[in-house]
Amino acid sequence: MNGELRETFTNFIYQAKRNAKGEIDGILFVIYDVTDQVLAKQRMEQALRARDEFLSIASHKLKTPLTSIQLQTQMAKRNIEKNRETAFEPARVVKLIDQTDHSLRRLTRLVDDMLDISRITTGKLTFHRETLDLLALVREVVGNLLTNAIRYGEGSPIKISVKNQADRAVLIVQDAGPGIAQENQDRIFERFERATPASSISGLGLGLSISREIVNRHSGTLFLKSSPGAGASFLVDLPLNATDMP
After folding, report:
1. Residues 103, 144 contacting (CB under 8 angstroms)
2. CATH number of the domain at 1-126, please?
3. Range 134-244 classified under CATH 3.40.50.150
4. Phi and psi dihedrals of 25, rounded to 5?
5. CA distance 31 to 18
6. Taking the complete model, does pTM exceed 0.90, yes or no?
7. DSSP state of 19
8. What pLDDT is recorded for position 37?
9. Same topology for domains 1-126 and 134-244, yes or no?
10. How many CB atoms lie within 10 A of CB 213?
11. Considering all CA atoms of the chain, what is the largest pairwise distance in Å, rounded to the nearest integer?
């Protein structure tokens, strides 16, 4: 196709070709192009692997704050049952409450991410448009992009910039990390996907998917510019005027 090489998959059947005397004088081949079916199967298998990996990660991430809360409450209970005076010291009580609150907020963020992606998938996430400050609009998106840069940037400096281009705002979050290969650049915006193995990076793999959906719902685009060894730049392009939104 236009001189472009592409990978194809075929299946075939064959049978002997006989002449009028019943003698074999050739072989008949029928070849079928099964590329679409094979690629569809590969995509399905990849989606299933990503789902199973996500479930494994999610169960661990949800269990961690729950375990922390459980240990804190068990310790407090033992101290109270033994009538230890230190159990009621204001400083100790405040510390326990702070630790529990931290674990609960962490748990809430994880659950909120999962609920958001579930609503997006089922079409139940609704948006009510209104005039608001750009910072308020992109707060969650910027938070997700910064978290992503911190996780994958390998400690490299992170640069944030905003430009005004023809009634549109372009926000750029850039790191100087290892970069992302071309073949992974579309995939990382899918649910549960990561640019690196899950064992080495925290998180559920939902942030970029949620961020792109938020930006898309506001008539914007979120895209990536990167190459291996050259860092990664995530660009958010949003209209500044409500009239630019359909």
Report:
1. no
2. 1.10.287.130
3. no
4. -130, 15
5. 20
6. no
7. -
8. 92
9. no
10. 21
11. 107
DSSP one-letter string for 45-63: HHHHHHHHHHHHHHHHHHH
pLDDT at 200: 46
Low-confidence ranges of the chain (pLDDT < 70): 1-3, 54, 57, 117-138, 191-206, 242-246
Residue 168 CA to its chain's centroid (Å): 26
User: Are 235 and 172 within 8 A, CB to CB?
Assistant: yes
Tokens, residue 98: 């702070």
Rounded to whole angstroms, the Cα distance separating 204 from 193 reads: 8
Question: What b/e sequence results for 179-191 when a residue is b if at least 16 CB atoms lie within 10 Å of its CB, and e otherwise?
Answer: bbeeebbeebeeb
Residue 194: CB atoms within 10 A of its CB come to 23
Q: Taking the domains of the chain in order of start, what are their residue ranges?
A: 1-126, 134-244
CA atoms within 13 A on the CB side of 97: 8
Element (H, E) at 146: helix 134-152
Instruction: From residue 90, give the alpha-carbon distance in Å to each of 83, 93, 96, 97.
Output: 15, 5, 10, 10
Q: What is the pLDDT of residues 200-215, one digit of tens each?
A: 444 556 678 778 877 8
Structural tokens at position 101: 């609150």
pLDDT of residue 137: 62
How far apart are alpha carbons 99 and 72 in whole angstroms? 8
Enter the tokens of residue 115. 């609920």
